[in-house]
Write a structure and sequence with these properties.
The chain has about 200 residues and is of the alpha+beta class. Helix content is about 35%, strand content about 20%. The strands form 2 sheets. It has a 4-stranded mixed β-sheet. Strands 1-2 form a two-stranded antiparallel sheet.
Amino acid sequence: GIYSVVAVIQSGGQKIAEISKPLYAINDFSEQIAGLTAQVNAIKSSAEAAVKAVAPLVTTPEYRLQRLAALGQAQGEYEINPHTELAAIEATLAALRRGQNPLAGERGELERAYLSADGNLVPYRVYVPKSYTGAEARPLVVMLHGVLGDERYFFSWVFDPDLIKGEAERRGVILAAPLGGGRLGAYAGKGQDDVIEVMKSVAQ
């Protein structure tokens, strides 16, 4: 189930502050992870034309699956609800197995991942305006984070994400935020490759 750990600070009987953090209690889900991983591999190796056409999209649920599996060893940076995450991954894989593209109609702030040349899954963020239909070309704005940032940088408390998303909606532009070589990386070598690959992925 889903619980909250609440810390209350009081002084003289008066509540000064309250902090609440989510806690997700879930039984060992290694069997579910293994089953979904098998589905990922089946999509990759499928000989069906319809499935082969959408197979490259499996990188996003595969990345989310890897991150979820890591929760068994450590908390990580993301606050993930394993219950909803497992359901979302399962739904995406089920559509891909049917040869459907479940990602095409998604709008707003989205998490994506692509397979890099070194075989690693690399995450990035994209914002697609709600008005986007795919019927006409839209400008793509690539947002490069600074030191200690990552692909979530422009959609976090560091900036005003509502303002950034609002401008994307108003101007009708698509936003892409690469990882760019990591928090201490620079936009050369792998960092530069990351930017180019993200642009290709969004265009596709």
